[in-house]
Amino acid sequence: MAISGSGKGVARLRRDNAFYLSIAPFFLIFIVFSVFPVLFSMYLGFTKWDGFGDPQFIGFENYARALRDPVFQKAIGNTIYLWFWSTLITIGLALVLSVLINDHVAFGKTYFRMVFLLPLLVAPAIAAIILRLFFSSNGGIVNLLSGAVSGTPSYFDWLGSEFWIKPLVTLLVVWRWTGWYIIIFLAGLQSIPRDVYEAARMDGVGRWAIFSRITMPLLLPSIAFAVITATLGGLQMFDEPYVLTQGLGGTNNSTTTIGMYLYATAFTQLNFGLGSAVSWYIFAAVVVLTLVYQAIVRRAQAGAAA
């Protein structure tokens, strides 16, 4: 007697019962703590809710309100500034240092990896305290050195300056994350066959030509990964500006990022609908920029292959 398709499916389920039961907790946790919050935040973006009463449906008002808010507009500008300069300096510095370590350090590369990664292990709050020791207006090391050079005491308020607070946040990001990208680039560099370099040197190819025509094209996947990772972190930047300005966003919101704006609206003002709308703006920006990067990398790889 032939067994129907549905009967086979039931028999397979019974046979694999233990397997499905073993993976069920993972999917349950994934649905509760990942899928449900995402779907719920999407719903909250169309409502007005303070976390206590019943959500009131208001359509796209939260999205429109965010775009009209001058603080949100300034947060967008601050985020773009901090993301651009921190990404450019961090990845550029990491690329240069990783090439130097790979080419000129024969022994102890693991030591350099460990040393450059140490700042990432320091908590953002501790890193901000260290930076404050250097740039405090009263007794800061930079002001003390400036006063010693000029002969007059210096009490410049670096952390209160609308202009200088952004470079200081960028400096903190660069200090913390350069080591991480050095490790990524070193892994990419060490995956390039040494025979390629030896053949190029035998043909009389110079160092710059080797770097620009061999190293960079073969390192493109690592660079693309680093840029996408930096973009994800830059658009969601929160820790560094928050701890450095003690949650105030600097003078006249000079370092308030989109992440800080989201935190303030959702968890300080208890406007979870507006906060959810802002989070979806961040998500949309991340998706668009990631697609743009992927298109650029594909085109660059196609050009290098040709």
Mean pLDDT: 85
Give the total of beta strands.
2
Distance between the termini: 61 Å
Poorly predicted regions? none
Query: Would you give the CATH topology of the largest domain?
Result: MetI-like fold
Would you identify the CATH architecture of the largest domain? Answer: Orthogonal Bundle
- The fraction of residues assigned to DSSP E strands is under 5%
Annotate the secondary structure layout.
Blueprint lengths: L4 H11 L1 H28 L2 E2 L7 E2 L3 H8 L1 H35 L4 H13 L2 H12 L5 H10 L14 H26 L3 H9 L4 H29 L3 H6 L13 H11 L3 H34 L1
Antiparallel strand pairs: 1-2
Helix pairs in contact: 2-13, 3-13, 4-8, 4-10, 5-8, 8-10, 10-13, 12-13
Describe the structure.
There is one protein chain. The chain has 306 residues and is mainly alpha-helical. It folds into two domains: 5-44, no CATH class; 63-305, MetI-like fold. The chain contains 13 helices and two strands. The protein has helices spanning 5-15, 17-44, 61-68, 70-104, 109-121, 124-135, 141-150, 165-190, 194-202, 207-235, 239-244, 258-268, 272-305; strands spanning 47-48, 56-57. It has a two-stranded antiparallel ribbon. The radius of gyration is 26 Å and the shape is globular. The termini are far apart. The relative contact order is 0.12. The mean pLDDT is 85.
Write a brief caption for the model:
This protein has 306 residues and is mainly alpha-helical. Helices cover 76% and strands 1% of the residues.
